[in-house]
Design a protein that fits this description.
This protein is mainly β. It has 14 helices and 39 strands. The strands form 8 sheets. The chain has a 16-stranded antiparallel β-sheet with strand order 22-23-24-25-26-27-28-29-30-31-32-35-36-37-38-39, with no helix packed on it. A 5-stranded mixed β-sheet has the order 2-6-7-4-5, with helices on one face. A 5-stranded mixed β-sheet has the order 13-12-11-15-14, with no helix packed on it. A hairpin with a 4-residue loop joins strand 20 (about 480-485) and strand 21 (about 490-495).
Length: about 900
């Protein structure tokens, strides 16, 4: 035994049990005598705990974190004190932690916890940057007044700043961080943090140098080449020679091959930033490209990036370069090129080996391409892979493993080992995330039902149907199969996120003594039965998939109002849509109403329709049939715009209309694949055939009292994803309007007018407007309208933004079309031609907005030439 007086240090054994912290100390002592047996730890009861420092912390919380309480039993020597110090240290709140023993009385020990707090941030400043960068950095840094200032805090904040500018191509960013005590207003232990940022100049890529690419020789650019190196590019425009290898670099510039130099001109969207993570991704893609050519052993031996001062660039570059640039050098080992030889199958009982070989679509002698092999085995976007065969037939647990069984010279034999397993049936179908749309509205669209055999095609088709509804955000609509291999079942969970299904438009103004205004709204997921439920008005009752639209518009010359309602599942059991529509339009030439004034003219059209539509199961379930009865009542007063001689009187139109259509679009907004084709036939009763009247001698008002005609409209569109997200759209339209009685001739209403943007707001006299970019409104058709037309369109589309908030894409087009007054004039090879560019952006609350510039090559005077045209909801398509 040993006596220690005054302040005593715990034994070294006690210290050894503590975690090592540079600023943490443990002191145990008192002003009296403490006897400690180093060989035999003694149990003490904590008799009391006092605190020093850390005035801003609740002592109860400190004790809770430390794991010490008055009354606890602790061993001295022991590890409870070191554990308590470690717990407090981990909080990151303290610069120093000490636990002292102030005295020992009998079996009771009294402790003191001494803490020194780390300073907190009272404010911070970003110096050297302005505007958007200031705002973006403050959002990204996620720091706030009151945060504890540690070295890690300062380092992390500086790294976020550097990363922000590295993403922009500024690789020489310098961030100097300083802290200064803040004593204003009596503040204690507070500091001001200052980030001094020196951005420097953007460092751009000057050239990319390849070594070792002996087999990737120069070839003419091929449209089918898929650009996989997306991020590397350089800064200077140049001649237009390229190499097939370099097309994989997509956005490169000066490219060196030993002593030769080939240069590829960048597209307008290219960038010239260097980002290491993106560069590493590009190198991986480069090797993937080599592998797809058959070079399965290709690898990047090394890559080097170095800075070239501006004054060391060549003469041409020096004239343009005002800053340093980067050179990138990549050394490649290509290896030998390999080929497929014998491909065999084992384990297959459902399908023969010969059939599977045809489905695999890889022939003996093809370059060895493991990417294509895996794609044709597991998932091909066209749905022609071997997995689709099995999974569409319920074999969810199917597996196919390709194994290289022999490598001889440049040839490889492959054995595809198949495990078919048993068929899986769907047990449960679960909807997750639908906060507005009712479950039954979703379930009725699905092609996966409990008890059915699992089908991957049905799963993808169900997702397509949900996307087509327009109720949910496409990006987050994910079906998730959860298989249970033990009992051969699978649960399917459809994760959905509600989107904006309402479109509202409100405009009002005053000009030239007239009130001009529009008020309209279209609700796509309305619930009529919940209209009288107060709790459902949030902001409108929804969830039943019904559509409701109301519109009112006026500009002093015309006044229109409309109403439409659609129940997509009449009766709730079958996909049979029922629709009601009514609208009334009044147009005048702006003069004050006076029936005796020859200057005043007007046209009033009232229209109503009842429609019944349903999905068909034959020839397949992409087909639909819609039938409707339409009634229109026309009232004309001194109205001569039709150019048909019918200017005064009333007319009635009662027509039967049916549309047979097939639509397999994968997405209703930005479509990448699928087709749409429709045949529309409309006909009125042939009243004149049941009458003995001499129509040739009747006045126009009597002759057109009951309108008669028949009409055939045919349209088709095909979408093809040709490369990346680029889509080729090919479309055509054809229409013909005929009559039953030569003495009556063509109906004055419903004729075709071609040219312009196709906005139906101008079709105030019942005409059918056919858009044609590059030409002014109605400029291609005869002044009195056409009875037959055709139009052909080719478009290339590239998406720019695809998000929950908006979808935006750019396009280029060529278009041809014409309209004739008589079918005998029809010539599909005699068309007006145009070409141009455009942009489309989808705003959920407004719909699809378009802006196109087209040049009409065949117009005379003001009808052709360059035309800038605006469109709404595909009116121009």
């Amino acid at each position: 035994m040993r006596t220690i007086t005054k302040i005593l240090i715990l034994p070294l054994l006690f210290l050894a049990l503590m975690p090592a912290h540079a600023d943490a100390q443990v002191v145990v002592g008192n002003n009296s005598t403490i006897d400690i047996d180093y060989l035999t730890p003694k149990q003490y009861e904590i008799g009391g705990i006092t605190f020093e420092g850390a005035e801003n912390f609740d002592p109860r919380m400190v004790l809770l974190i430390a794991g010490l309480q008055v009354g606890d039993k602790i061993a001295v020597p022991g590890d409870r004190i070191s554990v308590a110090i470690d717990n407090l240290w981990k909080q990151g709140m303290f610069e120093d932690v000490q636990i002292s023993a102030t005295r020992i009385v009998g079996n009771s020990i009294f402790l003191k916890i001494k803490l020194q707090e780390r300073p907190k941030m009272s404010s911070f400043a970003l110096r050297g940057v302005k505007g958007d960068d200031q705002k973006k950095l403050r959002d990204d840094m996620h720091i706030a007044v009151g945060d504890v200032v540690t070295e890690n805090f300062l380092t992390t904040s500086a790294n976020i700043i550097r990363s922000h500018y590295l993403e922009k191509g500024f690789s020489n960013v310098e961030v100097i961080t300083t802290t200064k005590p803040d004593t204003t207003g009596g503040k204690k232990n507070m500091v001001m943090v200052d980030f001094q940022i020196k951005v420097g100049k953007r460092v751009k890529i000057d050239s990319l140098i390849f070594e070792g690419n002996n087999e990737a020789k120069y070839r003419a650019p091929l449209a089918k080449d898929i650009p996989i190196l997306k991020h590397i590019n350089v800064n200077k425009k140049s001649p237009t020679r390229t190499n097939k290898l370099m097309r994989k670099m997509k956005k490169t510039h000066d490219v060196h091959y030993g002593k030769k130099l080939y240069v590829w001109t960048k597209g307008f969207w290219s960038r010239s930033k260097y980002r290491e993570a993106d560069f590493n991704e590009d190198l991986t893609n480069l090797i993937t490209y080599y592998n797809e050519l058959g070079y399965r052993d290709a690898r990047v031996v090394k890559d080097t990036v170095w800075n070239v001062p501006a004054d060391q660039l060549n003469i041409k570059q020096k004239k343009k370069a005002k800053q340093d640039r980067l050179k990138v050098k990549v050394s490649i080992h290509e290896g030998n090129k390999f080929y497929f030889r014998n491909i065999t199958f084992s384990g297959n009982t459902i399908y023969s080996s010969d059939f599977l070989a045809k489905q695999l679509r890889i022939n003996k002698g093809d370059p060895y391409n493991s990417t294509m092999l895996q794609q044709n085995l597991t998932y091909n976007p066209s749905g022609t892979d071997i997995s689709s065969l099995y999974m569409d037939n319920g074999y969810l647990f199917f597996r196919a493993t390709p194994v290289e069984v022999l490598v001889e010279n440049d040839s490889i034999d492959i054995e595809i080992r198949i495990v078919e397993d048993k068929q899986a049936r769907i047990r449960n179908v679960i909807i997750d995330g639908n906060t507005v749309t009712n479950d039954n509205i979703i379930y009725r669209e699905l092609h996966t039902r409990p008890g059915d055999l699992f089908s991957r095609d049905a799963l993808l088709r169900s997702r397509r149907e949900l996307v087509t509804l327009g109720y949910f955000k496409e990006e987050t609509l994910i079906p998730e199969p959860k298989p249970n291999q033990k009992d051969g079942t699978v649960d399917i969970i459809y994760h959905v996120e509600e989107g904006n299904t309402s479109q509202v438009q409100a405009q009002v103004g005053f000009a030239t003594g007239m009130v001009i205004g529009t008020l309209s709204f279209q609700l796509k997921n309305f619930s009529f039965k919940r209209m009288f439920d107060k709790s459902a008005w949030n902001p409108i009752p929804g969830g039943d998939g019904q559509q409701l639209g109301i519109s009112l518009s006026s500009n002093g010359f015309f006044l229109s109002g409309g109403f439409n309602f659609t129940e997509p599942w009449l009766g709730g059991k079958r996909p049979q849509a029922f629709s009601l529509m009514a609208n009334d339009l009044f147009y005048s030439n702006g003069f004050s109403y006076d029936k005796d004034d020859e200057k005043y003219s007007s046209l009033n059209i009232f229209q109503g329709a009842v429609t019944l539509g349903k999905r068909l199961k034959w020839p397949d379930d992409y087909f639909s049939l819609s039938q409707s009865i339409n009634y229109k009542h026309y009232t004309l007063h001194n109205y001569s715009s039709l150019n048909t001689g019918f200017t005064e009187g009333t007319s009635n139109e009662l027509a039967y209309n049916f549309i047979l259509a097939r639509n397999s679009y994968d997405n209703p907004i930005y479509t990448r694949s699928g087709s749409e084709i429709s045949l529309q036939v409309a006909a009125t009763p042939p009243y004149s055939l049941f009458s003995n009247k001499d129509y040739s001698s009747l006045e126009a008002a009597e002759r057109y009292k009951w309108i008669e005609y028949y009409k055939v409209n045919l349209r088709g569109a095909w979408m093809m994803n040709i490369i990346g997200d680029v889509v080729l759209s090919a479309r055509f339209r054809f229409g013909y309007m005929g009559y039953y009685n030569k003495e009556i001739g063509l109906s004055p209403f419903g004729r075709y007018y071609m040219g312009g943007n196709g906005l139906q707001v101008y079709a105030y006299d019942g005409r059918e407007v056919i858009p044609m970019r590059g030409y002014t409104d109605n400029s291609i058709s005869p002044s009195s309208g056409a009875s037959i037309f055709d139009r052909f369109t080719l478009e290339i589309r590239q998406p720019i933004i695809e998000s929950n908030a908006t979808t935006l894409w750019v396009l280029g087009f060529v278009e041809a079309g014409n309209a004739w007054s008589d079918i005998r004039q029809f010539n599909p090879f005699n068309n007006y031609n145009s070409a141009g560019v455009g942009v489309r952006f989808m705003i959920p609350s407004m719909g699809l907005i378009g802006l196109d510039w087209g040049y009409g090559f065949d117009g005379k005077g003001s009808i052709g030439g360059g035309q800038l045209q605006f469109s709404i909801n595909q009116s121009i398509d």
